[in-house]
Amino acid sequence: MKTKETHDDFDLVELLVAPNPVIAEMILSMLRAEDIPAHVNGRYLQDEWAIAQMVLGRTGVTVQVAAKDLERARDVLQIRGDTTAVDA
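and the corresponding structure tokens:
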């Protein structure tokens, strides 16, 4: 499922769902190293329930990129098909 969110001059789309914030931040760093702007939803969550769910592995952390950068981001991360990074 690709979610769209408007971010100034471009649309953000879901690249993948990382199992936890640490892996999401690592992916974010990899993308930024290749000059691909990326966004991690929920990285500053203050909701204790949401944080507990992430820690328990019951929810993931969505990594988003601009729609125009989606294919390049997938190439950088070598993603094909399933966009849930459960094996990361």
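(Above: one complete record from the training split.) The chain has one domain: 4-77.
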